[in-house]
Amino acid sequence: MEKIRIWVRDFLIGLAKNFDSDRKGPVLRNTKQFLQAEVKIPIVLSMVFTFIIVYAMLIMDMGYTYRTFLAAGIMMLTISYVFIFETRKEQSLVSDNDAVVLMCLNLIIAVLFMQVSQHYISIFVFPVSAFVIMGVMLLAPRIGLCYAIILSLLAGFISDMRFDVFMILLGSATVVLSRARKIRNRWDFVKTGLLVTIANIIIISMFYLLTFYSFGQYEKNLYYGLLNGLFMIIILLVILPIFERIFSRTTNIKLIELADFNNHLLKRLMLEAPGTYHHSILTASIAEQAAEAIGENPILARVASYYHDIGKLNNPEYFIENQGTTVNPHNDLSPAMSTLILTSHIKDGAALAKQYNLDNDIISCIVQHHGTTVMSSFYNKARSVNGGEEELNSNDFRYPGPKPQSKIAAIIMIADSCEAACRTIDEPTDAKISEMVNRVVDLKMKDEQFSECPITFKELELVKESLMSALLRMYHSRIKYQETYEQPK
Ligand SMILES: [Fe+2]
Ligand SMILES: [Fe+2]
Asked: DSSP secondary structure string, 351-369?
C-alpha cells in the first residue's frame, strides 16, 4: 500500500512539473492572465485522458457487465483508429499541444451533449453539426470529417445500434462540412442551422417512408430535427467564441472583426503612421488575391497584412513611407544603428500584437514577413562608408527571422516587398512592374527565404502572376485618375 502511495505521489509531482515546464513569465494573478497563459498539456496525456473519459461515459450508459466492457472497448478502439489515422495527416496540428487539447476537449464535450440529449430529450436533438463546424473552423476540415464519422458512430452505438440514428446524424454532419469554411459572420450560423434542419427533415422522412417509424414517432422526430438545428446555433454562439479565445484559434468570424478599421490598433496606425497604414492596405489588397490564387485563406492574408507592420508604431518617423518631406533621421545614424532600429519593428510588432490579443496566425506573419533577408540599403551604405575596403558580414544586416513557415507568411513577404518596390518605379508600365515582381521573388528564392515553408514552385508562379495583375490594375487605375484631373494645356 505504501508503495502505491509513493508511486501516486511521484506520478502527480511529475505531472505537475510537466504542466509547469513551459511556463515562463510572471505569476498569474487574474482570469485574463490565466486565459492568455501558455499551459502546455502533453499530447499523449490529452489522448489517454480523452480515451478514458469517453470509454467511462459509454460504460456508464450501457451498464457494468463484461459484455459492455468488451463491446465499448471495441468501439473505442475503432474510433481511436479513425481519429489517430486521420489526424496523423495534419502534421501541423498533431505537433501543436493546444490544438490536440482542443481536439480532445471538443470530443469530450460532444459526447457529454450526446449523453444529455439521449437521456433527457432524444438522441435526435444531439447537435453533431455544431461540433463538426467547430472542428473545421478551429482545426481543419479533416478533423471535422473525423468528428462527423466518430460522433455519428457513437450515437448509433449508445442508442442500441440504431441505423436511423447513425444516418440522420451523419447526414446533418456532412451537409455542414463544405459550408463550415465559408462561415464569415454569426448570421451564417442561422443559415447553416436552417440547412441542418432541412437535411434532418428529409432524412427522417426517408426513414418514415421505409416504415421505420409510426406517424406519431415521425411527427416527434421532425420536432426533434428542428430542435437539432436550433441547438446547433446556440452551441456555436456560446462555445465557439470561448474556444477561439482560450486556444487563440483563428476563425473567419474573428478575422473579419479584426479587419474593422475602428479597431484601436488600426486607428493608431492610421493616425500615427499614415504611410505605413497606406502601405499595409495596398499589401493586404494584393496579398488577398494571391492567397485566393493558390487556395489559401484570403481573409487571413488580408487581415495579417493590415497588421504586419504595426511594430513601426514605436518609431514611425524612421520608416521611409512616413517621412514625406521631413529630413531622413538615418542621415545622422550609423548603418548599424539604423539596422537595429528598423529590425526592431518585428519584435515590437509581436509585443503589440500580444498586448492587443491578436491571434497566433497573425503574430506569425508579423515575425516572419521579412524572414532573414538582408537590409541591403544599410549594408551597402556601411560598405561605402568603409570605402569598400573592410570586409563586412552581411549577416549583421539581416532581419532576425524566422523565415516564413506558412504559405500565407510567404505570400505576405512577397506582397510586402513587391508593393514597396513598385512604388520606386518612376513611370510604371506593364513591363517594368512584371520585371520588378520577378526580380523580388527571384532574390528571395536565391536567398532561400522559402526553404522552411511548404510553398511549391508552381504556387510561387501563381502568386507572381496574381501580384503582377493586381499591381498592374492598381497602377493603371492611378494613371487614369491622374489623366482625369490633368489641367488642359
Ligand atoms: Fe515590415
Ligand atoms: Fe511592410
From this structure: HHHHHTT--HHHHHHHHHT
Domain housing 171: 2-20+35-247
Query: How many C-alpha atoms does 426 have within 13 Å on its Cβ side?
Result: 0
Q: What spacing in Å lies between the alpha carbon of 309 and ligand 2's midpoint? A: 5
Same domain, 275 and 138: no
Q: DSSP assignment, residue 391?
A: P
Does residue 487 lie within any of the structural domains?
no
Q: Is pLDDT larger for residue 61 or for residue 126? A: 126
Residue 402 CA, ligand 1 centroid: distance in Å: 13
Cα(first)–Cα(last) distance of the chain, in Å?
Answer: 102
- Ligand with smallest separation from the Cα of 371: 1
Which of 191, 213, 247 is the endpoint of a domain?
247
Write out pLDDT tens, residues 17-75.
554 444 444 444 455 444 445 556 777 888 888 899 999 988 888 888 888 889 889 98
> Among residues of the chain, what percentage have pLDDT more than 90?
56
Number of residues written out for the chain: 489
Same domain as 343, residue 435: yes
294 & 154 share domain: no
pLDDT digits (tens, 9 = 90+) for 302-315: 999 999 999 999 99
369 Cα–ligand 1 center, Å? 6
Please report, for the domain that includes residue 426, its CATH number: 1.10.3210
Asked whether residue 191 falls in the same domain as residue 320, the answer is no
- The x, y and z cell numbers of residue 403, run together, are 523565415
Phi and psi at 9, nearest 5°, equal -60, -45
Using CA atoms, how far apart are residues 322 and 76, in angstroms rounded to an integer? 60
